[in-house]
Amino acid sequence: MIIRVRAVLSLLALFSLDVAVEGFSIVKPSQHLGIHQGSLKIKHQLNLKDDDDDEEADDDIDISDRDWRAFRAQLVMKDSAVTDEEDEKTSPSSDGKSETIIYEDDLDGIGSLFTDDEATPMNEDNFTPLEPSQWAYDAGKLIEQGAVILGGVEQEFGFGLRQQYFHKVVCLILDHDENFTKGIILNRPTDMLLLDENDEKWRIWFGGDVQNLSHPMPDIVCMHTIPKGTDDLIDKTSKTVMKDIQWCSFRDAKLLVKKGVCKTSDFWCFAGYCGWGPGQLMGELERKSWYMCATDSQTLLKELQKQSAYTDPRDAGIDTWELLMNMIGRSDTAEECSGDFEDLMLKEWARNNLLSVEAGGNAGIRLQPSDVATTNMRLVQGETIDDFMKQTVSALKAGSVGVGSVLRASSADRSPFLLQDQEFHKSIILVIAEDDNTSVGLILNEPSSQPFEMELRDKKGQSKEVVLPVRFGGQYSIRGQAPLVWLHYSEALREAKCGSAVGKDSGIWQCTQADAVDAISAGIAKPSDFLIVSGLSVWIKGERGVSDGLRGEVKKGRFEVVKESRIGKVWNALQTQTILTKMDFVKNLSNGINAWKAAGESSTDEVEEEAPISGIGEGYDEEDDKLVFKSDVKVSKLSDDALKSWVATFLLGAPSLGA
Ligand SMILES: *[C@@H]1O[C@H](CO)[C@@H](O)[C@H](O)[C@H]1NC(C)=O
Ligand SMILES: *[C@@H]1O[C@H](CO)[C@@H](O)[C@H](O)[C@H]1NC(C)=O
Ligand SMILES: *[C@@H]1O[C@H](CO)[C@@H](O)[C@H](O)[C@H]1NC(C)=O
Ligand SMILES: CC(=O)N[C@H]1CO[C@H](CO)[C@@H](O)[C@@H]1O
């Protein structure tokens, strides 16, 4: 009956590799649907070279004791300067004329060499001095120790959906050679203190994703400003990044404190770092993932002090990024994207990863709340009992999860799939396989842009073209099996023994394409009675039940079990979905969400009063945990937006439609 099948797995491309589940061989995508994903390569071992030659000998001028980078900044900024009377920063010169300077304390004496009569004023597009001694310029593609990487905001696929910590990052390069670049993030303070074995407390910052605090061997860089020469031990342990900024290992920092050379408060401790392999950072600079910036140490130190003193971790240091963007002449770019989707996602990431449990976050236990300045932190103790009860109920329900179970993603305001795996937000999952090591499910309510076209011939020989949407079932596929799974939920088809039941009780059956065609031509079913799914979702179980597959997901409240009595309703809602197109995908998406709603307890999720939407921030209430920090966007709305962005990016290949 079927004449032709034109089903193209475009973005749903599925790759090779092996997880065995009940005889299936499951294929794992080598890259997230083939789209450039993230930037950082993990490197666990660092070879720190010992090179102390910070001074780049510049011919005849002795600048060995000065900040040669400031010196170069002066040259660079003068090169790119453009006359603009209004923007001139002037100071009287000895002969009474006004002349432009880029003032640099450390250049007393030699600065005059570079202020000649023809000096043109600095270009405001390039440089906005805050204080005479502060400077920054766009360093193009010059990667070197002491340079600062600023998160780019012009790439088509930004950091909204994953690795949110790179969004608007300010990252200081500590080390750079042909094989490896190591940087630490300067603008992600936490409100947490680390207690060492000597009962000393250290304020911790998030330095990057590699070897972070959850790694068995965390890498902690301890930055300080104690000059060399102060103490032998300082000289021995510390490495200079740029003028006035040094760093040592956590071990050495502890030693320095133990010996009484300094206090823990003399250090900024960055746990984790960012690493780039050979050529990687350069490639990313070429793709505009970052802006390279050179700036002076005082600017960085001032920002670090400010963040230590009063920045709330949920602010995620965005203002420091904005300051540097302004200083390198990119204030327009910075302004355009202020408060956008990526900003909100970053703030939620920060709440989850930088804010302590005491303060309503998720990042661990703060040791001594009073030690750390935080603003209006909310305590959540009152919610603990509720949470406990919920967990108990979930655990009981999880026991019954097995093949044939229908699950729906958590209805919590703060979706567990906000920051990653957004495809599961408001998803409906059918469990199709389960063993000791793996759970396998199909997402049922995410139509793809892929049509399934078939030509049917009726008894009179009339041919009719039928187009059905193919659902995106997940990122894995079954090796050696037809890539499409056909499902139905119809009394007539069950009676006709079309295929076989998935599990005991769900009423959902699986059949082959041939079964479906036979049933349609026999007049038992309509084409729309079938749901075609491409791809699988897989949950690997951990050793000793560390992660318990889908059952574990239900226990943790990330998924809820859908009552059998609701499956019919869900199925009806699923049948209203059509092929995903760029034009109408928002509407089609909301049909998927309707199916998810039909799966839940009625009414409660309907009575959703709208938040008062006023100007930016006006509707914001510090105490309202349902809103993204310092915004009037509901977290539940942001979660829907994240799903939208995921679908636009991975199923439509059009990230820009998403956010
Ligand atoms: C980079 O790696 C290569 C090959 O391992 C090695 O020969 C070279 O010395 C390394 N370069 C640096 C600067 O470490
Ligand atoms: C921290 O490191 C672990 C691996 O050790 C990684 O799975 C996790 O994503 C990292 N966390 C962040 C926030 O980068
Ligand atoms: C689960 O994994 C273990 C270790 O790899 C293996 O020995 C066992 O046979 C697997 N169980 C099933 C049901 O595949
Ligand atoms: C149910 C629904 O809204 N489906 C829409 C999905 O997108 C297609 C293509 O734009 C529309 O024709 C459907 O109406």
Tell me briefly what this model is.
The chain is built from 15 helices and 28 strands. The chain is α+β, with helices and mostly antiparallel strands and 659 residues long.
Report on this model:
Residues 81-100 are annotated as: Disordered. InterPro entries: AlgH-like, Rhodanese-like_dom. Pfam families: DUF179 (PF02622). The strands form six sheets. The chain has a six-stranded antiparallel sheet, sandwiched between helices. A six-stranded mixed sheet has the order 9-10-14-11-13-12. The chain has three domains: 2-115, no CATH class; 148-373, VC0467-like, CATH 3.40.1740.10; 383-604, VC0467-like, CATH 3.40.1740. The longest helix is centred in the last third of the chain and has 17 residues, at 635-651. The protein is of the alpha+beta class and 659 residues long. The radius of gyration is 29 Å and the shape is elongated. The two termini are 43 Å apart. Residues 1-66, 81-129, 367-384 and 603-619 have low confidence and may be disordered. The protein has 15 helices and 28 strands.
Which labels suit this protein?
signal, AlgH-like, binds 2-acetamido-2-deoxy-beta-D-glucopyranose, Rhodanese-like_dom, VC0467-like, alpha+beta, Rhodanese domain-containing protein, disordered N terminus
Radius of gyration (CA) equals 29 Å
CATH architectural arrangement of the largest domain: 3-Layer(aba) Sandwich
How does the major sheet shape up?
6 strands, antiparallel
Overall average pLDDT: 76
- Which class of the largest domain in CATH terms? Alpha Beta
Overall tally of structural domains = 3
The CATH H-level homologous superfamily of the largest domain: VC0467-like
- Beta-strand residue percentage: 15-25%
Overall 3D geometry?
elongated
Number of strands: 28
Classify the fold: give the CATH topology of the largest domain. VC0467-like
Distinct ligands, ions and cofactors found in the model: 2-acetamido-2-deoxy-beta-D-glucopyranose
Counting helices, strands and paired strands, the structural category is alpha+beta
Q: Percent range for helical residues?
A: 10-25%
Name the strands of the widest sheet in spatial order.
5-16-6-7-8-15
Per DSSP, the total helix count is: 15
Distance between the termini: 43 Å
Keywords: Signal
Signal peptide: 1-23
Pfam families: DUF179
Protein name: Rhodanese domain-containing protein
